[in-house]
Structures are given as structure tokens and as C-alpha cells.
Specification:
Elements lengths: L1 H23 L11 E5 L6 H14 L3 E5 L5 H10 L3 E7 L6 H6 L31 H15 L6 E5 L33 H11 L14 H24 L3 E6 L3 H8 L10 E4 L12 H13 L4 E7 L5 H13 L4 E5 L6 H14 L3
Parallel strand pairs: 1-2, 1-8, 2-3, 3-4, 4-5, 5-6, 6-7, 7-8
Helix pairs in contact: 2-3, 5-7, 9-10, 10-11
The structure holds zinc ion (ZN).
Zinc ion binds next to helix 6.
């Protein structure tokens, strides 16, 4: 009986100690959620206009703005954003870069399709689909200078990359009808890049000139990975350049690394950015808003603890009720918050849903 009592006391003591020490362990802190919007300056970017919309965003619980405007207009926007308690990130397109001066002076910097046409002169899908080649060294220098200039803007919180990828080799299914296409496989006119620099480097690395692959090109794993790798190399250079200036670098990417690689050769699971903003635009993939959860789960697993993930939502295709479902799905999928495209597309009901759901986000 005495032994039993001793055993009982020993067990209770051990249990209490275990509970005491586990209580002393610092709990793994969950970062506070943040929520963002993508927006351009629009036609009216006066101080009054920006003050009004930034203050409305802050009131709804938004933390920051991915803002697109000419480089010279950023300083004013940063000042007004900060006055309203918001971060401001410079949102700019990177590889799709249809600048007149570059088209005129450096047509050889632009990507070339498997059927030998340059996006400088024969852009696929739409006239502005003119893309710089990620392998080209002069392009790399040009882009590093471009982001360094952005990162030097006084007070800027971050550089936000967009179109940091190849042109769509396959479009999201919702767009097939729009362009009267059936993109059941990789077709030569949409498959990039076969410029001299890409072909020579790949041949040096593997002994194969990709131009000789023709219709078997999509089956060549090394050639597919080469395209992912050269985009990743550009991202790494830009990351280094922006971090040197002491601010964040983030990107808008396609939903999930799997879809991103298949459609636009964007292997963002291999990048080292501070945060990813996958465009979880369910309607583009003929999916319901609940699908956003699955997309977030795959993205969060891919980036792990290395970076944050904000779930991009496409408001023009979401009713206020669907918007609510998509916000909840983002949270359930493990996102650090949402990013809205765009506040200009929101009606009063969307604003009400946004405010309610952001207030709820950290409570649940
Ligand atoms: Zn190329």
C-alpha cells in the first residue's frame, strides 16, 4: 500500500512538473495577420483622393497597399499612405516590359517563340505581351537597375514584382473561349524562350540545341527546368538588390507552384522572397471560392516558415457572399492574410464584408 502511495505521489509530481515546464516553453508565435490591396493610381491621384481612399482602407483593417504608378509619383503616395498608417509597396511589372525605348534600341532582349517569332514584333494574345528574356545578361542588369531605383524611393516599404515569369504557355481555362483557343498542350507560338542566348546556354549545359527538339520540346524535362531556373536566377538578383536597400521584396504569383510552373514557368517554391501573393482567382480556373483554401494549403506548404503568403482575391468575379467565403477559405488554408484586386471593384456590401471578416480573422 505504501509503495502504491509513493508511486502515486511520484506520478503526480512528474505530471505537475511536465505541465509547469511546458507552460514555461515560449509558445510558437503566430504572426499577426495583415491584409493588402492591389491598386493603381487611377485617373485621379490627387492628395485628397489618395487620403480618402487610404483612410477608408485603414478603417476596413487593411495594412498596406501594392501601388502601381509612374516611378516619380511614388514619393507622394508613400507620404499619404504613412500618414494613414498604411505600408506602401511599389507594384511593377517586370518581365513583361513593352517599353518603347527598349523595343526600339534592344529588340534582341525580347523572348522568341518555338516557331521563331519575337514578342517584340509578334506578341501573343494581346499587343502588350512583349516580354524580356530572363537569360539575357543585359536584361538582368537593366532589371537590377530598375528595382534599385524603386528601392531607393524615400520611405518605401517594399518592391512588389508582377509578371515575373514567362508569357503563358497555357492560359487559365476561363480565357480559352475569349481568345478562341483550345490549349490542351504546349503549342509552338506560345512556348518561350528560343532566343540565341537561351539556346546557346542550354546547349552548353546539356549538349542539346532546344531548336532541334521541335514538337518534343514540352517533353524534355531539362529544357522545361531550364526555363524555371533562368526566371529564378533573375528573382535572386532582384532580391539581393532590394535587400541591400533594407526593404522587403514580394511578388504576385500564379496560384500554387504546380499551376504556376505548368502555365507560366514560374517555380516560386524555389525563390527567396519575403512574401508571396498568389492570385487565387478561382473563376479563372472555373472553380468555386471554396477552392481558395486548397490553393493556400499548397502555397503555404511550399514556402514553409521562410516567407509569408497572402491570398489574392479577384473581386470583380465575387459576389459579396462569395467574397466572404473566399476570405474564410484563405484563413482556413493557412494564409497570413488576403490581398484584394482591387478596392475600385468593391461595392458597399464588399466593404462591409471586408471589415467584418478582417475583424473576425484573429479571433477565430
Ligand atoms: Zn531567351
Amino acid at each position: 500500500m505504501k509503495r502504491l502511495l509513493q508511486l502515486f505521489i511520484f506520478t503526480v509530481t512528474l505530471l505537475s512538473l511536465t505541465i509547469f515546464f511546458s507552460a514555461c516553453q515560449p509558445a510558437k508565435e503566430k504572426p499577426t495577420a495583415k491584409h493588402y490591396v492591389w491598386m493603381g493610381e487611377g485617373q485621379n491621384h490627387s492628395t485628397d483622393f489618395l487620403t480618402e481612399i487610404f483612410s477608408k482602407l485603414k478603417d476596413a483593417g487593411i495594412s498596406g497597399v501594392m501601388y502601381q504608378c509612374p516611378v516619380d509619383n511614388y514619393e507622394q503616395a508613400v507620404t499619404i499612405a504613412h500618414q494613414n498608417g498604411l505600408e506602401l509597396h511599389a507594384w511593377q511589372t517586370i518581365m513583361r516590359h513593352p517599353e518603347k525605348e527598349l523595343l526600339k534600341n534592344h529588340p534582341d532582349w525580347f523572348t522568341v517563340s518555338r516557331d521563331g517569332k519575337s514578342t517584340a514584333t509578334n506578341p501573343p494574345y494581346v499587343d502588350y505581351y512583349k516580354w524580356l528574356c530572363p537569360t539575357n545578361k543585359e536584361v538582368r542588369n537593366y532589371l537590377v537597375n530598375f528595382v534599385e531605383k524603386l528601392a531607393s524611393i524615400k520611405g518605401l516599404d517594399g518592391v512588389h514584382l508582377d509578371y515575373i515569369r514567362h508569357s503563358d504557355v497555357i492560359l487559365p481555362i476561363e480565357l480559352w473561349e475569349k481568345y478562341d483557343l483550345v490549349m490542351d498542350k504546349e503549342y509552338p507560338e506560345f512556348d518561350f524562350c528560343y532566343c540565341d542566348e537561351c539556346c546557346k546556354r542550354f546547349e552548353k549545359e546539356t549538349g542539346i540545341d532546344p531548336r532541334t527538339l521541335k514538337d518534343t520540346a514540352p517533353d524534355n524535362e531539362a529544357w522545361r527546368k531550364f526555363r524555371y531556373k533562368t526566371v529564378t536566377e533573375v528573382v535572386d538578383l532582384l532580391t539581393e538588390a532590394v535587400h541591400k536597400k533594407g526593404i522587403k521584396i514580394t511578388a504576385a504569383v500564379f496560384p500554387t507552384p504546380t499551376i504556376s510552373k505548368t502555365l507560366v514557368r514560374q517555380a516560386w517554391d524555389k525563390w527567396s522572397l519575403d512574401a508571396y501573393y498568389p492570385m487565387n482567382y478561382n473563376s479563372f480556373y472555373e472553380e468555386k471560392p471554396q477552392w481558395v483554401e486548397k490553393a493556400c494549403v499548397e502555397g503555404v506548404q511550399a514556402v514553409g516558415d521562410k516567407a509569408e503568403l497572402y491570398s489574392g482575391l479577384f473581386v470583380p468575379a465575387l459576389t459579396p457572399d462569395e467574397f466572404r467565403v473566399a476570405i474564410k477559405a484563405s484563413k482556413k488554408g493557412g494564409a497570413n492574410g488576403i490581398c484584394i484586386f482591387t478596392p475600385y471593384n468593391m461595392n458597399d456590401d464588399h466593404w462591409a464584408v471586408l471589415k467584418e471578416e478582417i475583424a473576425q480573422w484573429d479571433k477565430q
